[in-house]
Amino acid sequence: MGGLFALTSARDVQEDIFFGTDYHSHLGNYRAGMVVWNSQTGFQREIHNIQKDSFRSRFANFLQNASGQAGIGCIADDAPSPLIISSHLGTYALCFIGAITNADELSGELLAEKGPMFNALSGGRINPTEVVSALINTKDSFHEGIEYAQSRIKGSCNLTILLADGSLIVGRDKLGRLPMIIGKDDDGYAVSFESFSFEKLGYHYVCELGPNEVVKIAPDKIEQLVPPKEEMKICSFLWNYYGYPTSTYEHVNVEMMRNRNGEILAENEADPQLFDRLDYVCGVPDSGTPHAMGYSYRSRVKFARCYIKYTPTWSRSFLPHLQGSRNEIAKMKQVPIKELINGKNILFVDDSIVRGTQLRETVEFLKENGAQELHMRSACPPMMHTCKYLNFSVSTSKNDLITRRIISQIEGDEGLEHIDEYADPTSQRGKRLRAVLAQRFNFDTVEFQTLDGIIEAIGLNPDSLCTYCWSGKE
């Protein structure tokens, strides 16, 4: 996914940039970078691989040597960022998060014009941040260039530019698929993906940029360069999974949404008598826990943490790029509380069911520890499509999705023409999908949140939400 953080201030803020960026570490573990601007020395930059070491440990030395009144930082799961660019618009640092699905097409067009040059990454791939900068540089001003880049990019693009005078130019994706939030203290402004990151540093919330909005920020003012558009398609999965629990987007807190989502899931339980048989409701840690707490509250079944994830030395299991490493890490992190598992009937709530590999290992682990009945509830609808707007499921092909694999095994390719029926728990195809999932993973029952249920839990206008990974509708 990736996260960004930026500051411009009347005082030295290198420590705030460091900690604000570090607070986005849950969004990626591939590359990270920082640029600090100083009125005397200009730009100071470092980029590091953080696959084996934390952001904090990799950038500790940089923090000791760098100082300045402005800067940007980025946690990325893709190419190195931020970059320092020299162009007819001046020298600036650029940080980009999102996904450019037509990057090859755009870079090919730019190269055909015999204008820009690109540094090639491994395999000849071009850094998407360079593509963004090249698009911006085709115009006579930053705001014109950003508008042009947004109009050409397929996917998503949140960006922050640090200018040579220490001011910032910030642009949110044209459909607002990711958040861009502004905070303020007495000396300047902060810009962040996660709202809590600047709040922990003493900045208070000012506003969220609207879709396609571009602003210029100096320590003492915000100037709007491009007004926001009304149409928004913010990612629903922000609240369901990868957003941090303490963050708020579009005035909806992540933890509160997850609690509501669990309550709605329990309200819609097809077999209310199930509650009488259960000993515990448990969340698949960690992101399934708040959904489970809501389910427990509404069902009046006791909540318990039947197993704990050991996280001090293991990163989030979805981040390693090799599937084998991901599976091994998932297994190593699961530490049981046997007294809460042995001989018990347990309903687990997970944030989602994607590939299913870790789910199978979780069931085996619980059965080995004496679980009797096991029921699984997914806090989101069946995932039928891979995201083409963000980098969240960039390594997942459609054929990796457990739902599509099962549909193909039931009916062949023809079954994929009836995805809407398979998503519907009341249809015959929907019931068949759930029965096969339960049998395959050795659950007593499997069920999913409905699309209407998750939209209700978020509480925004449905037309403002992107639900493509579940509905396939753009």
From TrEMBL:
Coiled coil where?
none
Which superkingdom is the protein from? Bacteria
InterPro entries named in the record:
GATase_2_dom, Ntn_hydrolases_N, PRTase-like, PRTase_dom, PurF
Entry EC number(s): 2.4.2.14
> What are the names of the required cofactors?
[4Fe-4S] cluster; Mg(2+)
Residues annotated to bind Mg(2+): 287, 350-351
Instruction: Please give the pathway this protein is involved in.
Output: Purine metabolism; IMP biosynthesis via de novo pathway; N(1)-(5-phospho-D-ribosyl)glycinamide from 5-phospho-alpha-D-ribose 1-diphosphate: step 1/2
Q: Which residues form the Glutamine amidotransferase type-2 domain?
A: 1-220
Q: Which UniProt keywords apply?
A: Glutamine amidotransferase, Glycosyltransferase, Iron, Iron-sulfur, Magnesium, Metal-binding, Purine biosynthesis, Transferase
Q: Which reactions appear under catalytic activity for this entry?
A: 5-phospho-beta-D-ribosylamine + L-glutamate + diphosphate = 5-phospho-alpha-D-ribose 1-diphosphate + L-glutamine + H2O
Please state what the protein is called. Answer: Amidophosphoribosyltransferase
Task: Record the organism.
Answer: Arcanobacterium buesumense
